[in-house]
Amino acid sequence: MADMATHHAQHDAFKHQFEDMDQQRDAGTFGMWVFLAQEIMFFGGIFGAYIVYRLLYHDSFEIGSNLLDVKFGAANTVVLIASSLTMAMAIHSAQAGKKGKTQVMYLLLTVLLGMIFLAVKFTFEWHNDYTEHLIPGFGFVIRDAWGAAGVHVPLFFCFYFFMTGLHALHMIVGIPIILVIAVMAWRNRFDEVYYAPLEMVGLYWHFVDIVWIFLFPLLYLVGGRYLSIGGH
Amino acid sequence: MSEHVVPVKVYVLVFLALMVLTGLTTGVAFIDLHAWNTPVALAIAVVKMTLVVLFFMHVKYSPKLTKMVVLTGFFFMSLLVAFTLADELTRGWSPKAQNWDATASSATHNPR
């Protein structure tokens, strides 16, 4: 262990307060997961509120869910999971000692997939919702076909826009961070011993992916798709 | 303890499994499973999350300290949901006090 420490100590990125590079990496991962635990609680609050209101206004939430387009939700799920794969590959290429350019390629692919996700979300989904008068506060129209449950359909859409909006905001924050890390990778800052920034941004990106993995079924799928209640 | 490098094959297999599960959860949403609709959708989401956490986020190969923080995060979130539902789902269980309706209707406060 002692000579390992001296070996690692010669790495440029080694900070003197740590025993060795392994301990430095484990400390970083620990800190990032404490941040992510906080993020779990942050999203947990809005998920908890969604569950309660869905139980209270079940029929209204099913009508609202039916108005969402499953094909966009499913396609975006595929895009986002693919971006998680390219992110994992960016870290893998550093661990395998590949050149910075390979890491940059995977990072840019991740950004591209993330931007496709946001483009589908904003231009197809949110824009359609606007033209169909489904945005609370922006001329929401309660349709007669929804019956008595119609009065609480705007509540579903409040949750829909807050949840997907908060998720999209996390991606909008993540993309510039990935680009900064890509510049570092381009300058060959990462190798098989030191790749902490790459690993940290990866953890963040995968977390955002996990949030979507729950948003997709909760918003798009558990809305009585087998019924015909005046959706698309 | 050196960092474990996950083989590319594992990443690709996890990705394919996530794709299959996405297809499954979408397909099953069009079938009425009655009381099982939401549990099935959530169970598939939990399996997908577990795959991402263990392999993409390397938690399977992380130190016990990291594993503990991950579990703590999800544990406290489940507490948040469980105690909220413990209130919400049991409101009709306790017997009403005598003259409750009369008292409630005369009061200005109206819960629902």
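qc> Chain A touches chain B through 53 residues (CB under 8 Å).
qc> done
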